[in-house]
Amino acid sequence: MLDVVDIGDRSLDAYRGVAPDEQLDELVRVAQRLRGARILHVNATSYGGGVSEILRACVPLLRDLGLEAEWKIIRGDDAFFQITKRLHNGLQGAPGELSETEKALYLGNAQLNAPHLAEGYDFVVVHDPQPAAIAGLVHHRSSRWIWRCHIDTSHPNPAIWEFLTPYLGAYDAAVFTLESFIPPRFPIRRVAILPPAIDPLSPKNLTLPKELARHILEWIGVRLSRPLVTQVSRFDKWKDPLGVVAAYRLVRQHIPHLQLALVSSMALDDPEAWDIYEKVRAETTDDHLIHVFTNLVGVGNVEVNAFQSLSDVIIQKSLREGFGLVVSEALWKGTPVVAGRVGGIPMQIPPGIGGILVDSVEECADALLHLLRHPQTARTLGASGRERVRQHFLMPRLLLDELLLLEALAVERAASAPTASLQLENEAESRLAGDVGH
Ligand code: UDP
């Protein structure tokens, strides 16, 4: 059996006054047309990282909208997750190959998991490379299969890409965050570009009273009488935590009491994180102004919220990034962000809005120093960032985009099989048939 993730109840009504009204109204209309559709989301972990963050909000809201949504996690052992981590890195361009044994292990995992997906769903959305091979192994083909790729696959390592490509041929559609992430010679015909989004009502993103937020950070040892910059990220080489420390040290030459917090959750499917954690500890352990926190010492969503709310500047010095939910999370709290000019980050921080994009340790240090010395500029950038997130990167917008894609797929299916179970309104059919895809 695959593990079903337990999720609470959510109500779309609670988003009135938070997300734009027109998005909510449109979402209700589209969901009405898909009422009763059975949707399964499949990924590799129920906590840690952006995908689980999105599914925790998206699945209960789909249920509230009248769809039968479920979320399942594939099973895998350490050896499997070591391989999928290299697959993930290779898809983002890292060198290396998988041995024949490793390839067999990856496929073997899909063979173990696939039989548990045989029940009838209208749509199965498979997230990222870990479970990607499953689609081709499920014989029950009444579902429409969607591969949702959250990572930057614009320049994949050719050997890794060649290995994964045949498994993708079984999908009806793919979803990427950016057009430029579609790899060369992509085998899936229908592709939609849908940037991810944050849930403004999750414990991580709802507005914390200032006093409570202060109390939370003071409680874990942060001194709020001193300036604070923070990066919230898994320990991952693409998030460049050592680059963050280097930039911070340059800034501290000018602002000696500046504190740095590195906040990281250790995900189940991320074996490399411990190596990087050790490196960061070795680099920072004697420095009492650098705080390193993980979920393992109890730093969770509410603490992350407090860091994102009260830091003077949030850093996201990524070298590769699918989207970078942490950027929108910080901007939503009105906190300016200094971030790597990579992947999905620039669409969250366009020129003059939200923060400053950087390409090196030195630029990162300069931008931090600038914002720390000009608090009014920092506040203005933070405020414009919050409005940008409200318009483009809140969960209702993502749900709307996703449901439009599902509807387009259902229409396509209905056209090829007139007795299909989903009944869609004619008007929607003609509008959507040309809407999504390339
Ligand atoms: N996150 C967290 N605690 C941490 C580190 C990260 O809750 O210590 C969350 C973070 O708030 C965000 C997600 O994990 O919601 C990371 O998503 P992002 O898209 O930034 O990066 P990914 O980890 O998916 O590459």
Automatic annotation (TrEMBL):
The keyword Glycosyltransferase applies. Keywords: Carbohydrate metabolism, Glucose metabolism, Glycosyltransferase, Transferase. Residues 225-388 form the Glycosyl transferase family domain. Its EC number is 2.4.-.-. The keyword Nuclease does not apply. It comes from the Bacteria. It is an enzyme of class 2 (transferase). Residues 41-182 form the Trehalose synthase N-terminal domain. Pfam families: Glycos_transf_1, TreT_GT1. Gene3D superfamilies: Glycogen Phosphorylase B. GO terms for molecular function: glycosyltransferase activity. Belongs to the glycosyltransferase group 1 family. Glycosyltransferase 4 subfamily. Homodimer. This is Glycosyltransferase.
